[in-house]
Each structure stands twice: as structure tokens, then as C-alpha cells.
Specification:
CATH class: Alpha Beta
Strand content: 15-25%
Strand order of the largest sheet: 3-2-1-4-5-7-6
Number of strands: 7
CATH superfamily: Vaccinia Virus protein VP39
Structural class: alpha/beta
Length: 218
């Protein structure tokens, strides 16, 4: 099968987008909120840091990150879905340092060495490789030297040897782009763009991963 962007399920719209957080809680039997809180904790964000959130969704992640960066930090969140944007604005009302922008993350972005961290959560797998490379380049350019690119997504593993429930999720629930992402070497993908010094945290028996890579210091 030829992998094309129209196979992606990453751009959630309509009723699914409107009730996204509730649906995620139900589908995961209440596991998702504690999981995402643990993953955000593993980012090791510091007071005053600036974070670029790529594909920010409803703002749940931005609110969690704010607990670490405080009032002096900033989350600049990029999201194109109208329903997601509406939810983000509603959830983050009253927090002026959580800034929403209507920008595609797979097109050139205007930021240059402005952020301490770039975060992307369950979005990168939903793009064809050419667009993944563009997103990684956007992250590299946006980061300050020594900054961190954090990818919360599927780990790399042999789908054929995974348990039935993992194979079902990847092949029946997800789009074909997800399996393509899983089968690639994400670390090597990042190395090819200049990132190094990797650190990872694994979840759900190692099938989900927070992979952090550093932009080399000058």
C-alpha cells in the first residue's frame, strides 16, 4: 500500500474532537489522565521555561505543563482544528502564558532558537515521512542550543510479535502511517537532523514512549 497523508487520522474533527478528552478517558478505562500526567512529569520542565507544543489539541497537556513552568514560563500551542481550538481556549482561559496559534506544524514555522523544549504528543506518527522530517526540522530550528525535543508516541517494535491487543490497536484502530512510524528507527530519524543525547521513558509495557533528544549546544 502506498502511504499517503489522506490515510491519516491525526487531524481529529467534529464530535470526536469536541468530546476528545472524555472519549480518551472512556476508551482507556480511565488510564489516560494518569498516563499523560506521568509523561508530562517526565519532561522535567523547569520554572520559567518556554515550550512549543506541536498539535496541542484541547489544552490538557498545556495546563499540565504550566504546573512546572509557572507564571514566568510560556507554552505556545499550535493547533488547526476548530473544535480543538475552542476547547483549548475554554480550558486555558485566564492563563495568559498559554498562547494558542492557528498554524500547521508540517509547514515552515517562524520560530528561531526561541524555546527550551518542543513537545509533540501522539501526532508525529500520523504523517508521511516527508512531513515528519519537516516537523523535526521545525523543532530543531525553534529550539535554543541545548534545548530538548520531546516526542510522546509509539515506541519502535516488531508489530508482528506484539500482543494481540497491540496489533489490534495499530492495525484496526490506527491508520497505516502509525505502523510505518513504529517500524522506523526514531532515534536515527532524529540523528539525521542533528539531534543527539537521547533519553527515554517507557509506558504500557514499553509500547508507548517519551523520547527526548537534545539540540547540540553551540
Amino acid at each position: 500500500m502506498e502511504l499517503t497523508q489522506d490515510l491519516s487520522k491525526v487531524e481529529v474533527r467534529g464530535m470526536e474532537a469536541k468530546y476528545y478528552d472524555i472519549l480518551m478517558n472512556i476508551i482507556t478505562l480511565g488510564w489516560y489522565p494518569s498516563f499523560i500526567k506521568k509523561a508530562i512529569d517526565d519532561l522535567e520542565l523547569k520554572e520559567g521555561e518556554r515550550v512549543l507544543d506541536l498539535g496541542a489539541g484541547t489544552g490538557r497537556n498545556a495546563l499540565l505543563m504550566r504546573e512546572y513552568i509557572g507564571r514566568s514560563g510560556e507554552v505556545r500551542a499550535l493547533e488547526i482544528g476548530a473544535e480543538m481550538q475552542e476547547a483549548f481556549r475554554r480550558k486555558t482561559a485566564g492563563y495568559p502564558n498559554l498562547i494558542l496559534e492557528d498554524r500547521r506544524i508540517d509547514e515552515p514555522l517562524p520560530y528561531h532558537e526561541e524555546f527550551d523544549s518542543v513537545f509533540i504528543s501522539f501526532v508525529l506518527h500520523g504523517f508521511v515521512q516527508e512531513k515528519r522530517d519537516r516537523i523535526i526540522e521545525n523543532a530543531l530550528k525553534a529550539l535554543k542550543p541545548g534545548g530538548r525535543f520531546a516526542i510522546l508516541d509509539y515506541a519502535n517494535f516488531d508489530v508482528d510479535k506484539a500482543p494481540w491487543w497491540v496489533r489490534f490497536a495499530i492495525r484496526k484502530v490506527e491508520c497505516p502511517l502509525a505502523e510505518d512510524f513504529i517500524r522506523r528507527d526514531t532515534r536515527q530519524m532524529l540523528r539525521e537532523h542533528g539531534f543527539d543525547t537521547f533519553r527515554e521513558s517507557l509506558y504500557l509495557q514499553g509500547y508507548l514512549r517519551l523520547l527526548m533528544a537534545t539540540k547540540p549546544a553551540d
